Amino acid sequence: MANPVVNTAMCTCSFGVAPAVLPVTSQQTVMTCGLPQATMMDNKLPTFGMCSSMANPTVAAATAAALGVLTPMPCTPVTVTPWAPGAPTVLVCGKPLLNNTSKLMCSYGGVIQVTMTPAMTVQTP
C-alpha cells in the first residue's frame, strides 16, 4: 500500500549525490500527520548536490574540458512535468495526491523518487 507524501519527505535523483527535502508549495490547507500534504504538482525541488548526467550542459562542458573524464557539476533540477502516477482518484485542493510510489523525471534524464516520508500508513489486523 502506498503512503502519502508530505512536506519534508526525502527524495533522491538517479544522477544526484545527495538527498533533497521536498517542499510542498501547491497547497497549504490540507494536512497529513500535521504536515502539508503534497500533490503531483509539487515538482520544484532543491538541489541534489552534484549532478553526473551528461545531458546536463554544465556536466557535459566540464567533462569535455577534462578530456572526457566525467566531471560532476552542481545539480539544478529541471522538472517541467508533474509526478506520475500519483493517486488520481484522491484530490487535495483539486490536485491529485502524491504518494511514495510516484516518480518525477528531470529534463536531464534523472529519475526522482521519494525515499522516506514522515506520513506512514499503518495497517491493523
What does this structure look like?
The protein is mainly β and 125 residues long. The protein has a domain at 10-49 and 79-116. It contains 1 helix and 10 strands; from the N terminus they run βββββαβββββ. It has one helix at residues 57-65; strands at residues 10-13, 20-21, 31-32, 35-36, 50-51, 73-74, 87-92, 95-97, 103-105, 111-116. The chain has a 4-stranded antiparallel β-sheet with strand order 2-1-10-9, with no helix packed on it. Strands 3-4 form a two-stranded antiparallel ribbon. The longest helix has 9 residues, at 57-65. The model has no long low-confidence stretch (mean pLDDT 94).
Cα radius of gyration in angstroms = 16 Å
Task: Assess the beta-strand content as a share of residues.
Answer: 25-35%
Number of strands: 10
Strands across the major sheet, in which order? 2-1-10-9
Number of helices: 1
Low-confidence stretches: none
Instruction: Label the overall shape.
Output: elongated
Notable features of this structure?
125 residues, mainly beta, two-stranded antiparallel sheet, 10 strands
Topology:
Layout: E1 10-13, E2 20-21, E3 31-32, E4 35-36, E5 50-51, H1 57-65, E6 73-74, E7 87-92, E8 95-97, E9 103-105, E10 111-116
Antiparallel strand pairs: 1-2, 1-10, 3-4, 5-6, 7-8, 9-10
